[in-house]
């Protein structure tokens, strides 16, 4: 082998060595980046699991409450008419004057719980009005006053006019848990 061939072979060998090192370095860098990403993902999953474990007691309490108070499945019309009758009965027993009442469309967008809604416009004394609202707002019965607008009556400043939206959460008979 001549000296030129030896030099060419050495240059090709060194070039090949450098090329292999560059490719190896790139592969190692990609592998290291993948390890860092996997580690970050694992840490994130670990932190979420740790948080879920810490919240387990609170959620267990909420689930116990829900199993104790969850309403029995009922038809939409039955719930809405029962809600309307209850609100009307409570208003008259508190000495409030019902000016108008309106059935609002039932919200059936949720997967399990639906909401029957009624809107009442009443007038009465402040004390009676607050007692009435307190009687309607009962979480254990899955009922809430979700909207209130209070305005003093123009003809009698001892009375308040109120417009309330009352909602009753219920489980439809065909809902899947």
Automatic annotation (TrEMBL):
Per the record's keyword annotation, is Transmembrane helix included, yes or no? yes
Q: Which residues are listed as membrane-spanning?
A: 7-26
**What keyword terms does UniProt attach to this protein?**
Membrane, Transmembrane, Transmembrane helix
Q: Which InterPro entries match?
A: Transl_elong_EF1B/ribsomal_bS6
Protein name per its UniProtKB record: Uncharacterized protein
* Species this chain originates from: Luteolibacter ambystomatis
């Amino acid at each position: 082998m001549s000296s030129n061939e030896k030099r060419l072979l050495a240059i090709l060998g060194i070039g090949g060595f450098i090329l292999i090192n560059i490719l190896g370095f790139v592969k190692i860098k990609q592998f290291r980046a993948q390890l860092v990403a996997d580690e970050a993902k694992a840490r994130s999953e670990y932190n979420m699991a740790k948080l879920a474990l810490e919240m387990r007691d609170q959620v267990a309490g909420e689930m116990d409450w829900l199993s104790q108070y969850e309403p029995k499945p009922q038809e939409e019309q039955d719930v809405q008419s029962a809600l309307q009758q209850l609100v009307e009965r409570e208003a008259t027993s508190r000495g409030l004057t019902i000016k108008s009442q309106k059935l609002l469309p039932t919200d059936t967008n949720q997967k399990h719980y639906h909401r029957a809604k009624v809107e009442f416009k009443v007038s009465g004394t402040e004390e009676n009005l607050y007692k009435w609202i307190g009687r309607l707002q009962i979480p254990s019965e899955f009922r809430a006053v979700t909207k209130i607008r209070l305005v003093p009556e123009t003809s009698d400043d001892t009375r308040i006019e109120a417009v309330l939206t009352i909602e009753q959460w219920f489980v439809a008979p065909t809902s899947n848990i």
